[in-house]
Design brief:
Helix content is 47%, strand content 16%. The protein is built from 12 helices and 8 strands. The longest helix is centred in the N-terminal third of the chain and has 20 residues.
């Protein structure tokens, strides 16, 4: 008989409609409501995306559904995996996902965040919240902390980079003229003094992709920094684009390897904001396609989840 294993699939979350933006933003701000100006700015960003907020939320739902299908279609029968969604800043919250598992009688579970790179300030906070609730609900949980060098992940991202470089060539550019910018969500600079692995893991992913895709020239940049008084990791992608313009770089490919799906940071910060700056600088800018629920990405996730389940103590199972 197959052992039922819960899988808590965690991500940042997004509102389901423009009406839900204020509650979402307030949660991000730890209960402090945004000013009218701040709220309008965020709503305008969502409204600027084709389709508004709905595709973003639906995409996460599809990822969870696709992961459960992948886990149970490529399974030796040892486990029956049941996926639950847990969001950091929207319903169902991380705690809701753990509670739902417990109510369904699940006592063993694996937690995974839809982000390949570990930081104590990102993935670490998801794990902490899930663990606290799991302890309260008597659910034994084991967590995937990172999977930034999984061979299938590097392969699928390398193919996306190569495909876009081919498009530059078709448009008349020499492949080696294209500057590839790998990017990820910025975090406060203090993570460096903490010995946090986030930056190093991102650089390792980028180097592996560049090597496999045969990228001649690449560099790392940051994006979507929070608006707080403390310094955040940089340079920001907008600053990098202006620097590249002074170097007479005319072709830029952005590979946001820190993001696995189309979200505000991709569809607005890159496709709208960065694209506008590139146009102003007469730079041809493209980005790679997001992984979303691509079967190759689902294969990565299902592999690391199964491996984590296999590493759980025999007494737990």
């Amino acid at each position: 008989m197959a052992i039922k294993i819960g899988v808590l699939v965690m991500s940042y979350g997004t509102p389901e409609s423009l009406e839900g933006v204020e509650a979402y933003y307030t949660h991000i701000r730890r209960g402090n409501p945004p000013s009218a100006e701040q709220l309008k700015e965020l709503k305008d960003r969502y409204a600027a995306i084709v389709g508004g907020v709905f595709p973003l939320r639906k995409n996460t739902d599809l990822q969870v559904e696709a992961l459960q299908a992948a886990l149970n279609s490529d399974n030796d029968g040892k486990y029956e995996f049941v996926c639950y969604q847990g969001l950091k800043h929207a319903h169902p919250f991380i705690e809701d996902g753990v509670e739902a598992m417990a109510k369904d009688g699940i006592t063993q579970a694996v937690g995974i965040v839809l982000a390949p790179h570990y930081s104590s300030m990102s993935v670490g906070t998801y794990i902490k919240r899930a663990q606290v609730k799991a302890d309260a609900c008597h659910v034994e949980m084991s967590f995937v902390e990172s999977y930034h060098l999984h061979p299938e992940l590097i392969d699928v991202l390398s193919k996306r980079v190569s495909a876009r470089l081919d498009q530059f060539e078709e448009a008349g550019a020499n492949r080696d003229e294209v500057r590839v910018l790998f990017s990820a969500h910025s975090l406060p600079e203090r993570i460096l003094s903490m010995g946090d692995p986030y930056r190093d893991q991102l650089l390792e992913t980028s180097a592996a992709i560049a090597a496999q895709a045969g990228v001649a020239t690449w560099q790392f940049t940051w994006q979507s920094a929070g608006r707080t008084a403390e310094p955040w990791l940089g340079p920001d992608v907008l600053v990098t684009l202006r620097e590249l313009s002074t170097e007479q770089v005319k072709y830029v490919l952005v590979a946001p390897v820190g993001f696995v799906s189309d979200h505000l940071e991709v569809l607005y910060d890159l496709d709208i904001e960065a694209q506008a700056v590139a146009s102003e600088l007469d730079i041809r800018l493209m980005r790679i396609e997001s992984l979303n629920s691509d079967p190759a990405y689902m294969s990565v996730l299902s592999d690391v989840v199964r491996n984590q389940a296999n590493q759980m103590k025999v007494s737990q199972l």
